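JOB MANIFEST
job_type = single_chain_structure
chain_count = 1
residues = 165
[input]
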Amino acid sequence: MINQVVKGSVRPEFDNLYLDMNGIIHNCAYPREGDGAVKKRLSEEEQYAAIFSYIDRIFHLISPQKLLFMAVDGVAPRAKMNQQRQRRFKSAKDAKEALTNARAKGEEIKDDDVFDSNCITPGTSFMARLCQHLRYFVRYKMQHDHKWRKVKVILSGPDIPGEGE
């Protein structure tokens, strides 16, 4: 892309739109308040709706002319797995400490209200369900939205090896 100043309502044209879905999934699955605190846990249906709305909003904002490529991280190369494992253990430990601290301050937090971000990992049942819903969403949009029909849409799911970090 060439950096240029966008003036008024004149937007540059883009042939292709590439989306790193994991960033979108994390931001939509457990949205945060301005101070970084996690909002109340969303149901899976609410998470899907937030993800689909975000994708559609970006799609219509950019209006790609040829291609929409959505990449969900797959299984990482072996060399990267230990780093990811350490990060996930740390994430789980930090979440447990934050929950303990919140409860110590008198906040009532049910275990069901806590979202485990480690489920956004290839091979989990959450990711399998999400990608099934993503495929349905893409089919629906291509049948009912004329702008989506004009472009080639590729969804690279978590079943495809490789990841974007």
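[summary]
The helical segments are 21-29, 44-62, 78-104, 125-144, 146-149.
The CA atoms of residues 142 and 148 lie 5 Å apart.
exit_status = 0
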